[in-house]
Amino acid sequence: MLSNTPPLTLSGYEPLTTEQRAEFLERGVVIVRGALSEDHRQRLEDAVDRVYAEEQAAGRVRDDGVLHLLGFLPRDDEFGDLLTHPAVFPYLWGTAGWNIYSHHNHLDVTPPARRAEEPSWGWHQDGYRQNSDPETLDPTQPRPMLSLKVGYVLSDLSRTGRGATKVIPGSHLRNTLERPANNADPLNAIEITADPGDAFIFDRRLWHSRSPNTSAVTRKMLFVGYTYRWIRPLDDMPIDRNGAWWDNRTPVQRQLLGESPDTINYWGVKWNGYVDDDIPLRRELRERGLLDRSVPWLR
Ligand SMILES: O=C(O)CCC(=O)C(=O)O
Ligand SMILES: [Fe+2]
Predict the structure, then answer these.
(1) pLDDT value, residue 119
(2) Is 299 inside a domain boundary?
(3) Which domain holds residue 91?
(4) Packing angle between helix 89-96 and helix 18-27, nearest 10 degrees?
(5) In the predicted model, what is the mean pLDDT of the chain?
(6) Do 221 and 108 touch, CB atoms closer than 8 A?
(7) Which of 179, 219, 199, 224 is closest to 80 using CA atoms?
(8) 3-state secondary structure string, 25-77?
């Protein structure tokens, strides 16, 4: 898989190169090597460890030590800036446009498996009923992307067997996946091996699966999903808008957390039906000359 190592100083508003966009559109997944500096990765891991301890104290960690925490972003100040992390943000606005937010995000801690797992079938496209509700009368092939997700790798996943995400590059353009006998991995499946600090971005249609952690290394991941503002949230993510965490967020980050002046604004417009130029990410792109009439999602 091609990989892209970001230069040190980025704003997050560097347009994707033709090659970067083509790779993402073709494969449905890209890896950004070294997306997090070591210092940043360490701070995020420390925050994950704090949240894990809080969840454990509250009795919300599974017996096998696994934590899959939805809506984790407001749980620590370190997490809020991930919404606009410059090393990956161009893939988000560059492929989904300015009318987006995070409908879904999760923190995952996967300790070494205590016993061997029977092979089970975990391959799926994200989106639940998005894969069936609109298919009734006029099925579309491929389905629309609708959402994409960033996975930040905090632990060492440089070897297979450490519970990494498995994917089939290019499979986002196929609505169905053949299931081999005995729940074996499908053809062309690969495990995303990655170093601590790497990130990957995937189209929600990409066929993917979790995998068991048969190693001695606890896997730690943060996932941040993005979709259009006219799609409803997936996670319950209460945010105290009088608190320091909210105060520390930028206007673009607040948009990405679901802020909106009224309901129609989620559809990108004002009550008069015209596009709302004050939607923070749209404004940011406009001021930087990054809107593009030839690209519908950047229009
Ligand atoms: O935990 C994983 O590796 C994959 C989880 C997953 O299916 C997802 O984030 O959409
Ligand atoms: Fe998934």
Answers:
(1) 83
(2) no
(3) 3-235
(4) 70
(5) 96
(6) yes
(7) 224
(8) HHHCEEEECCCCCHHHHHHHHHHHHHHHHHHHHCCCCCCCCCEEEECCHHHCH
Q: Are 253 and 83 spatial neighbours (Cβ–Cβ below 8 Å)?
A: yes
Report H helices in 89-143. Answer: 89-96
Within a domain: 139: yes
Q: Into how many domains does the chain fold?
A: 1
**Ligand 2 center to residue 170 CA distance, Å?**
16
Q: Extract the tokens encoding 61.
A: 């960690």
- Structure token digits, residue 129: 């009923």
Q: Is 213 within 8 Å of 162 (Cβ atoms)?
A: yes
Distance CA 285, CA 97 (A): 10
Is 111 in contact with 218 (CB distance < 8 Å)?
Answer: yes
From 108, 147, 160, the mutation candidate for ligand 1 (largest count of ligand atoms within 8 A of CB) is 108
Element (H, E) at 185: none
CA distance readout (Å), 241 to 23, 77, 99: 39, 14, 22
pTM: 0.96
Q: Which amino acid is at 217?
A: V
φ, ψ of residue 190 in degrees (nearest 5): -130, 155
pLDDT digits (tens, 9 = 90+) for 186-223: 999 999 999 999 999 999 999 999 999 999 999 999 99
Here the CATH number for the domain that contains residue 78 is 2.60.120.620
Residue to mutate (ligand 1; options 201, 209, 234, 235; most atoms within 8 A of CB): 209
Indicate whether 269 belongs to any domain: no
The answer to whether residue 77 sits within a structural domain is: yes
Enter the tokens of residue 69: 């925490």
Whether the Cβ atoms of residue 225 and residue 130 lie closer than 8 Å to each other: no
For the cut 70, the answer to whether the pLDDT of residue 1 exceeds it is: no
CB 108 near ligand 1, within 6 Å? yes
